[in-house]
């Protein structure tokens, strides 16, 4: 039977492994999937969830043949459990490197496209120089929180403002409009931004992301795009395979022999920043990767082909 909210206060802090299993079940919805993630048995995960409910005196899930659905209270607890998970992971990463300066792990985060096309290709040389340092890479459009130690180092395309972070500007990463030669074959190449309306455009599905294009005079209506995808890699795959015209990083576009479209009208650069928490400046292994990436990203930014920033669209009166 479902547990009712207990009138008594929780008198002791439940063990961390109970929260760990709780988070895994929330993420996956079933005990079996959570058990696979944690390398535990299904009964063990079930016992952890039951024990956490007993100790907290509340029901965390509703059970059904299809799985476990978190209650409203459980969803309220998720951010707190995630903070605990981040702290536990940071604890392990810090402890793993205490015996020797160049041994341990570092958690690095970047956006999906920048991470895959720019950052990860740089890491092989770092690995050769420091083979005992492991790197955990988080690719996400979500800005991992360095203050809560969700990551040790971040590559950001905006300037951080938190006082406790060390940030270094490493240049500007440029983007432009590109198309595959097979798409442009037999078509009139656009000469003005307005001409894009007659072409198959590749862009975002989310209205939030689409509205950001207004500052660069790009269409902002979902109906203007023939293919919509909130993944940068998905968009790039569509452009690379001849679906239409889309926004791409300069370097991979040149590598894949894409054709630049409207280079004078659309040439945008995003400031790239390398960021870490100031508490990590005494960690040799983190500092080694930070300095390595600062040099590599600066070289990349200096040669990626950006020339100037695109004009913004004037609002109609």
UniProtKB/TrEMBL annotation:
Pfam families: HTH_1 (PF00126), LysR_substrate (PF03466). Keywords: DNA-binding, Transcription, Transcription regulation. Belongs to the LysR transcriptional regulatory family. This is Transcriptional regulator lysR family. InterPro entries: LysR-type_TF_proteobact-type, LysR_HTH_N, LysR_subst-bd, WH-like_DNA-bd_sf, WH_DNA-bd_sf. Coiled coil: none annotated. One of its GO terms (biological process) is DNA-templated transcription. Residues 20-71 form the HTH lysR-type domain. GO terms for molecular function: DNA-binding transcription factor activity; sequence-specific DNA binding. It comes from the Bacteria.
